[in-house]
């Protein structure tokens, strides 16, 4: 069985550039990203949603049991909330987010897998 996202809805979907979670832009604006909100601060900021999420993503993984899913471990989403995740997301987080991650000792890996080619 294949899940189909209606075209009218898919244009409204965005993926977080940091964790790959897929939500509508309104969900990101009203609720933030449940995995990355502390760093990205998307809630109540349409500008931040636009700069820290992307409409250009490939593949969708349904994360139902993140801690026990080998696919989510492979995608580096096993510590995140249940939800729909993009396999690849085109784009990079803004420089201030990269700096914040660096200051916290977290290595940033773009979700477009470009860092895997190093």
Question: What is the average per-residue confidence, as pLDDT, rounded to a whole number?
Answer: 85
Radius of gyration: 14 Å
Order of SSEs:
HEEHHHEEHEH
Whole-Å distance between the termini? 37 Å
Strands, total number: 5
Strand order of the largest sheet: 2-1-3
Identify low-pLDDT runs: none
Helix tally equals 6
Largest sheet geometry: 3 strands, antiparallel
Percent of residues in helices comes to 25-40%
Backbone structural class: alpha+beta
Shape: globular
Strand content: 15-25%
Explain how this protein is built:
The protein has 118 residues and is an alpha+beta fold. Helices cover 31% and strands 19% of the residues. The chain contains 6 helices and 5 strands, in the order αββαααββαβα. A 3-stranded antiparallel beta sheet has the order 2-1-3. A two-stranded antiparallel ribbon has the order 4-5. The longest helix has 9 residues, at 95-103. Belongs to the SPT4 family. It comes from Marasmiellus scandens. Pfam families: Spt4 (PF06093).
